[in-house]
Design a protein that fits this description.
The structure holds two protein chains of two kinds. Chain A is mainly alpha-helical. Chain A is built from 13 helices and no strands. The C terminus of chain A is likely disordered. By secondary structure, chain B is of the alpha/beta class. Helix content of chain B is 31%, strand content 24%. Chain B has 17 helices and 20 strands. In chain B, the strands form four sheets. Chain B has a six-stranded mixed β-sheet, sandwiched between helices. Chain B has a six-stranded mixed β-sheet with strand order 16-17-18-13-19-20, with helices on both faces. A four-stranded antiparallel β-sheet of chain B has the order 2-1-4-5, covered by helices on one side. In chain B, helix 4 crosses helix 5 and helix 8 crosses helix 16. The radius of gyration of chain B is 26 Å and the shape is globular. The two termini of chain B are 34 Å apart. Classes of the chains: A mainly alpha, B alpha/beta. Chains A and B meet through helix 8 and helix 9 of A and strand 5 and helix 10 of B.
C-alpha cells in the first residue's frame, strides 16, 4: 500500500510547495497546474507528446537499471545515448547500399554496439584498474557529446542548413514510422517490449547471476559466478540500451543528427538515472516513472508558454516534484519513533 | 545474578581499602540477535594497573569495552567509576568520566594533520581551531609519554604504529585516566610493540590505568599487573600476573578439560582426496598469510586446523576453494591439479565450502531462502532445461532442504536475512551437503550457534565424514576440533606448527603451539604432565 500512497502523497506535497513558488512568481498556482495537466493530457496529441518524451527515458532507464542491478553506478547513459545516435547516423550517412527495409534494423544494431562500446570503457577500467565508475562514466559523457559535435560542426554538417550544426535529413527508410499524425513512433513500442523482456530476464539463469553479483559480489564469486564477466556484459548491455534511446530520438523525432538531442535542462541520460532509481527494480516502474516525467516535460513547456513564467520557475517546480518523490521513497524505509529521553545521567 | 562482595564504596579513607576500582563493571549482559556476547560479566580495574583482558576472538572482550565506552548499551548490569555508579550513554559520557579507547581500527581522519585530529571534538566547536596550541599539546604529551609524532604530519603519511600513537595522544589529551587498548599489538612490529610497552609504563607512573585487550599470552604476561580471562561471553576469572603462567592462562582461555568425544573415530581411511603441497597464499594486504603449508586428507578423514584467529585460517580456506590464488604450491583434488583454478572448477570437482562469513560470503541476504539454496547449482538442468529457471523446481528443492535440515523459515520465499544465525547456517550447510561433496572445507561452523544447532551441524559433518568425504575443519573451538577431527594441525602466522593425531592432543601442548612453539621444540614433559 505504501508503494502507491507515498508517491502520490509526495506529489501532492510537491505541488503544494511548488504552488507557493508559482504564487511568489506572480502567477495563479491553480491555473498554472490546470494548464500543465491540460497541456500534457488534454488531447490525443499532447498525450502522444508525453509518450514521445517518455520513450528515450524508458530505454535509457532500463539500461541504467540493469547496470544498477549488477552493482555498477552507470552515470554515463547520456554519453552512451549520444554514441548510439552517432552509430545510427553513421549507418545512414555512409551511403551503404542497403535495401530500404534493412536501414532501421542496421541502425538499431549500430546504436546498441556504439552505446555498448562506450560503456565497455568504464566497465573495463573498473574491472582491470578498479577505477570509480561514477567518475569515469560521468566524464565520458562530455567526451561523447563533444565527439558528436565535432562531426556536426565538421564533416557531417549539411551544407544546406545555413551553418546549423546538423546532418541532412534522414531518408524515409531510415525514419521510424509514426502513429497517425502524431510524433509518437515505433520506438515507444520497442521500449515497452524491452521492458516486458526484462521480466523474462529475471527468470533466466543469467538474470539470476546478475542479481547475485549486484547484491553480493563476494557471494557471487563463492557461488562460482564469473563476477567480472557478468559485470562487463551487463554494463555493455546497459550502454546498448542507452544507445538505443539515442537512435530512436534521431530516427523517430529529429530525423537527423543534431546537437542537443536530449533537452538541455533535463537531459534524458541523466533523467534516466532518476527513472531507474525511482523504479527500484521493477521494469513496470520504469514505464510509469518515465511517463510521469514525460508529463512533467510536456506540462512544463506548456506552463512556460501559457503563464509566461520564467523557465527557471518551471524547472523549480519540476525539480520539486522529483525531490519530494525521491525523499518520500527514502523516508518510507524509516519508521518514526517517539522515544522519551531517560532522566539525565549523573554526569550532567 | 551472581553473589559478589560489594566493591568498596566511599571508604577511601580507611586503611587497607585504599584501592577503589577506577572502573567497576557488575553483571554486564549484552545480547545481539542470536548471540549473547556478554553474560553477567564482572570486572574491576584498579588505579595504576595494567589490566589485561584475555580471550579468544569472539569471547566478548571488545563488546564489553564498547559497553564501557557507551558505544553499546548493556541489557543488564551497572558501571561504576571511582565507586560511583554512573550511566554511560555515549562515548562523550565515557570521555567525560575519564575513559579513553584506542580501537583496533583507528578512528582518525586521514586528510587532517596529527594536531587537527587531536583537536577534533575536543574544543568547543564554535571557537576557532588553535593550531599552535594543539601542536604544542601533541608535542608536550609526546615528550611526557614517549609518544613521538610530528604534529604537522598528515595522518595518511603515518605508519600504522605512528597512527596508534596519535590515537593514544588523542585519548590522553582528553584527560583519559583509564585507557583501553584493543589488540594494540596486532598491527605492530615487535619493535613497535616494545615502544608501546615503554609508553604504557610511563602512563602508569603518571597514575593512569590501562586495559589491555589481547589474545597473545606472552605479551599479556609481560605488560600486565592483573589478567582477566573471558570465554564464550563469560568472565572466567581474574588473577595476578605474578601468580600465573602461560599454561594456566591457555587453559583458562580454551577450557580446562578435554570434552568427551561424541563421535567414534574410525581408523580406516580411503584414498587421499585433497593434496596440498607447499601452499603459500597472500592475505588482503599482499603479505603472505599462509606460508608453505602441506597436508593431505583422505576419504573419511577430518583434518582439524587449530589456531588463534587471524593466523591464516581464512586465507587457507579460501585458497582450498579457489577464492584466493596461491602464489606458490599445489592443490590437487582427487588427483586433478586445480592450482589457480576459479571456484567453479573446485565446485565441479566436488569441493564444498562452508565459509566463516555466513552473511557476507555464504549467502545473499536480499534474496530468498530458495534462491540461496540454488546459489551454486542454478546452472543445473534440474532447475530448468532452457534458459529459464524453473520456479517450481527451485521451490521444491528449497522445501526438501528446509525439511531435511529443519530450517526454521517462514517459507522458501522469505528473504534469507530474516533467518536466525543457526537457521542460516543450517541452510548453507544443507546447500553445501546437497552436492554430496568429496572434499568439504568448513570454517567455524558453529560459531555463535546455540546448543541445538551446534549439535546438528556437528552430526551432519560427522555423517558426511562417515559417508567418505574428506573434511578440512578450521575452527577456534577446540572442543569442536577434538570432537570431529582425526588429525589436528596448528596454524601460527600462516605456518603449520605441527600435526598430530587428535587422540594424542592435550590442551597444554596445543596452547603452546598456538602461541608459536613448533611441535619439535615442545618440552618433552609437556605431554606427560597432564
Amino acid at each position: 500500500m505504501l508503494l502507491y500512497v507515498v508517491p502520490l502523497l509526495s506529489i501532492a506535497l510537491a505541488l503544494l510547495v511548488g504552488g507557493a513558488v508559482i504564487a511568489a512568481a506572480g502567477a495563479n498556482p491553480l491555473r498554472a497546474y490546470s494548464q500543465m495537466i491540460l497541456g500534457a493530457l488534454g488531447s490525443l496529441h499532447s498525450v502522444a507528446e508525453v509518450l514521445v518524451k517518455s520513450t528515450p527515458l524508458m530505454l535509457a532507464g532500463l539500461g541504467v537499471m540493469l547496470a544498477f542491478r549488477v552493482g555498477f553506478w552507470n552515470i554515463g547513459a547520456e554519453g552512451q545515448l549520444y554514441m548510439g545516435a552517432f552509430g545510427a547516423t553513421l549507418v545512414v550517412l555512409q551511403g551503404w547500399s542497403l535495401p530500404g527495409i534493412g536501414f532501421l534494423p542496421t541502425m538499431v544494431v549500430a546504436a546498441v554496439v556504439a552505446g555498448g562500446c562506450w560503456a565497455l570503457i568504464p566497465a573495463l577500467l573498473k574491472v582491470r584498474l578498479n577505477t570509480n565508475e561514477i567518475l569515469t562514466t560521468l566524464l565520458l559523457n562530455y567526451v561523447a557529446i563533444l565527439f558528436v559535435e565535432y562531426f556536426l560542426f565538421g564533416p557531417w554538417k549539411d551544407p544546406l542548413t545555413l551553418n546549423f550544426p546538423m546532418t541532412k535529413l534522414f531518408p524515409h527508410d531510415a525514419q521510424l514510422p509514426r502513429f497517425g499524425d502524431t510524433r509518437l513512433h515505433w520506438g515507444f513500442v520497442l521500449a515497452i517490449m524491452l521492458a516486458a523482456g526484462f521480466y523474462l530476464l529475471e527468470r533466466t539463469r543469467w538474470g539470476f547471476a546478475i542479481t547475485v553479483t549486484g547484491e553480493n559480489p563476494r557471494a557471487a564469486a563463492y557461488a562460482g559466478i564469473d563476477v567480472l564477466r557478468t559485470l562487463v556484459i551487463a554494463v555493455v548491455i546497459s550502454g546498448g540500451l542507452a544507445g538505443l534511446a539515442g537512435m530512436v530520438e534521431v530516427a523517430g523525432i529529429q530525423l537527423r543528427l543534431v546537437t542537443g538531442i536530449s533537452p538541455p535542462n533535463a537531459p534524458y541520460g541523466y533523467t534516466a538515472i532518476i527513472v531507474a532509481w525511482l523504479a527500484r527494480r521493477r521494469p513496470l516502474g520504469v514505464i510509469l516513472v518515465s511517463i510521469l516525467l514525460g508529463v512533467l516535460y510536456v506540462g512544463g513547456e506548456v506552463l512556460q508558454i501559457e503563464t509566461k513564467l520564467p523557465t527557471a520557475i518551471v524547472l523549480v517546480v519540476q525539480a520539486m516534484i522529483l525531490l519530494f518523490i525521491l525523499g518520500g521513497q527514502v523516508l518510507t524505509r524509516y519508521r518514526v519513533a517517539l522515544v522519551r529521553e531517560e532522566s539525565r545521567s549523573v554526569a550532567a | 545474578m551472581r553473589k559478589e562482595e560489594t566493591p568498596p564504596r566511599s571508604e577511601a579513607g580507611r586503611p587497607g581499602a585504599s584501592r577503589i576500582p577506577v572502573i567497576s563493571l557488575r553483571g554486564i549482559t549484552k545480547r545481539f540477535p542470536g548471540i549473547t556476547a556478554n553474560q553477567s560479566v564482572d570486572l574491576d580495574i584498579l588505579p595504576g594497573d595494567v589490566h589485561s583482558l584475555l580471550g579468544e576472538n569472539g569471547a566478548g572482550k571488545t563488546t564489553l569495552m564498547n559497553v564501557l565506552m557507551g558505544i553499546y548499551r548493556p541489557d543488564a548490569g551497572t558501571v561504576a567509576i571511582d565507586g560511583q555508579e554512573v550511566r554511560i550513554r555515549s562515548p562523550r559520557d565515557a570521555i567525560a568520566h575519564g575513559l579513553g579507547m584506542v580501537h583496533q581500527h583507528f578512528r582518525l581522519v586521514a586528510n587532517l594533520t596529527v594536531a587537527e585530529n587531536v583537536a577534533l571534538g575536543m574544543q568547543p566547536s564554535v571557537t576557532a581551531f588553535n593550531a599552535r596550541a594543539a601542536a604544542r599539546l601533541v608535542e608536550d604529551l609526546g615528550r611526557r609519554y614517549g609518544l613521538d609524532v610530528d604534529p604537522a604530519a598528515y595522518v595518511w603519511q603515518l605508519s600504522v604504529g605512528e597512527q596508534q600513537r596519535v590515537e593514544i595522544v588523542k585519548a590522553l589529551s582528553r584527560h583519559a585516566r583509564a585507557l583501553i587498548l584493543d589488540e594494540p599489538t596486532s598491527v605492530l612490529t615487535p619493535q613497535e610493540s616494545q615502544a608501546l610497552f615503554v609508553t604504557l609504563r610511563r602512563m602508569l607512573e603518571a597514575g593512569h590505568s590501562v586495559i589491555f585487550i589481547s589474545h597473545k599470552l606472552d605479551e599479556v604476561l609481560e605488560v600486565s599487573d592483573r589478567i582477566s580471562v573471558m570465554r564464550h561471553g563469560r568472565m572466567i576469572g581474574t588473577i595476578d600476573t605474578a601468580q600465573t603462567n602461560q599454561h594456566e592462562l591457555a587453559r583458562m582461555m580454551i577450557g580446562r578439560d578435554l570434552p568427551p568425544v561424541e563421535f567414534e573415530r574410525s581408523p580406516d581411511f580411503g584414498r587421499p582426496l585433497l593434496d596440498v603441497e607447499g601452499l603459500s597464499v597472500p592475505g588482503d594486504r599482499g603479505v603472505l598469510a599462509v606460508r608453505n603449508v602441506s597436508f593431505s586428507v583422505r576419504a573419511g578423514e577430518c583434518l582439524g586446523f587449530a589456531g588463534v584467529a587471524g593466523n591464516g585460517q581464512e586465507e587457507l580456506a579460501d585458497a582450498l576453494y579457489g577464492l584466493r590464488r596461491p602464489t606458490a604450491g599445489r592443490i590437487r583434488v582427487g588427483g586433478a591439479d586445480l592450482t589457480g583454478a576459479p571456484p567453479r572448477r573446485f565446485i565441479d570437482a566436488g569441493v564444498s565450502y562452508v565459509p566463516a562469513d555466513r552473511s557476507g560470503v555464504g549467502s545473499v541476504g536480499a534474496l530468498s531462502v530458495a534462491q540461496n539454496l540454488i546459489l551454486k547449482s542454478f546452472r543445473d538442468r534440474r532447475f530448468g532445461a532452457s534458459l529459464f529457471l524453473d520456479a517450481r523446481a527451485v521451490a521444491d528443492h528449497a522445501r526438501a532442504l528446509i525439511e531435511e535440515y529443519a530450517i526454521q523459515a517462514g517459507g522458501p520465499e522469505d528473504q534469507i536475512r530474516t533467518l536466525s544465525g543457526g537457521n542460516l547456517q543450517k541452510a548453507i550447510l544443507g546447500r553445501e551437503m546437497s552436492f554430496s561433496p568429496d572434499v568439504l572445507v568448513v570454517v567455524s561452523p558453529t560459531r555463535g550457534l546455540d546448543v541445538g544447532a551446534t549439535s546438528f551441524v556437528r552430526r551432519t559433518l560427522h555423517a558426511h565424514k562417515v559417508r567418505g568425504a574428506a573434511i578440512v575443519l578450521i575452527s577456534e573451538d577446540l572442543e569442536e576440533l577434538f570432537d570431529l577431527s582425526d588429525r589436528l594441525a596448528v596454524l601460527f602466522r600462516g605456518e603449520v606448527m605441527g600435526t598430530f593425531p587428535a587422540r594424542d592432543a592435550d590442551v597444554r601442548r596445543l596452547g603452546l603451539m598456538m602461541a608459536g612453539v613448533r611441535q619439535e621444540r615442545l618440552p618433552h614433559d609437556a605431554a606427560v604432565d597432564q
